[in-house]
């Protein structure tokens, strides 16, 4: 999005504000779909990446379903028009009321509840039996790839032995035995999610290989409709990203074929790759601070709006959004929050940076992870299509926070 448009977009809502390009998001889903060719597939958008209804609806209109991790995300996806059977539900600790919602959504329950442990099977069976319904389930396995081979930040690597996610391959026979004692559950698929922000296809393929090899074994005794290779397609945050979403899909399709699984559909669960590059966090420079040769630029937006730098040491590109840079003098860009980790790193903003800044590639895990820490209002959101603002959500205000904190008064 060009700077003029960004400045225009935040005019009515002020800053901090996330600005999203809905057309680019739509085009990304189309490109991903095209990569499947005629192969039977399903794109389950990982709603956790960005749950704004405008975005979920844009993605759903292109035929995608959803991967959700809570009853709330499930309810939201349904409210955005995604059919229940197009939704899969992951999560290591789903509450009974969340399971009930999944089992009873639509006419026939959701597409699949993704079982994350042997222990969970009896719990889902009990809820389905209680409701007198059959529930479709998929076994989310832990592919057991070495952490090192997942080549991503440890906090977002999930497909290794130490992670709490999924049924370890060594436990799959125990899970199948538990399923055979669960008359209200129907096994429809096998799932794996190795981690997030992969910049090459290698870790994705490593996880998919473990999944597909297991599917071959399971097919000897059970029927399956699909294999789900999860999300994790990376984006370019400035250091490059070798693989495109289509590359991940093609690599997984090739492996699936090599494992003789042509009869099964391929599911994928991308979050970041569909939205990350198409959202910008716009903030305003409150002031500069110069102490001898140290130079800070202080913003009205910080780690409460975009946690990724504080949480994963992530670096997002930052530019002035409403004026030209004069020179390339570097400034330490920091937020207003009282934490040293409220720091976006060093950026070349020129001689006298003022006005608006654009923090790029903030469309995924930005607003969805924002908090009201330090009594800060949640940021605004602006949705752009064909160069125009078509919808906007105002910023929370300080009074809303004060009211919330006073709410439990005697
Ligand atoms: N499926 C499952 C089961 C997941 O756990 C995740 C992400 C996804 C799909 C989507 O992954 P993606 O395609 O977006 O990589 N907050 C972190 C990322 C956490 C990802 C958690 N799980 C960040 O800002 O980098």
Question: What is the topology?
Answer:
Layout: H1 3-9, E1 17-21, H2 22-35, E2 41-46, H3 53-61, E3 65-68, H4 71-79, E4 87-89, H5 96-104, E5 112-115, H6 118-131, E6 135-142, H7 147-150, E7 167-168, H8 172-180, E8 185-191, H9 202-219, E9 226-228, H10 245-258, E10 265-268, H11 272-275, E11 279-291, E12 294-299, H12 308-312, E13 318-320, E14 330-334, E15 343-348, E16 356-359, E17 380-385, E18 388-393, H13 398-406
Parallel strand pairs: 1-17, 2-3, 2-10, 3-4, 4-5, 5-6, 6-7, 6-8, 8-9, 9-10, 12-14
Antiparallel strand pairs: 1-11, 11-12, 11-16, 13-16, 14-15, 17-18
Structural commentary:
- The chain has 2 domains: 3-16 and 277-407, Lyase, Ornithine Decarboxylase, Chain A, domain 1 (Beta Barrel), CATH 2.40.37.10; 91-268, TIM Barrel, CATH 3.20.20.
- It is of the alpha/beta class and 410 residues long.
- The protein is globular, with a radius of gyration of 22 Å.
- Helix 2 (22-35) packs parallel to helix 3, helix 2 (22-35) packs parallel to helix 10 (245-258) and helix 5 crosses helix 6 (118-131).
- It starts with a helix and ends with a helix.
- The protein is 30% helix and 23% strand.
- Strands 1, 11, 12, 13, 14, 15, 16, 17 and 18 form a 9-stranded mixed sheet that branches. An 8-stranded parallel beta barrel has the order 2-3-4-5-6-8-9-10, surrounded by 7 helices.
- Strand 5 (112-115), helix 6 (118-131) and strand 6 (135-142) form a beta-alpha-beta unit.
- The mean pLDDT is 96.
- Bound molecules: ligand LLP.
- Residues 46, 49, 67, 90, 156, 158, 193, 196-197, 230-233, 269-273, 308, 312, 365 line the site of ligand LLP.
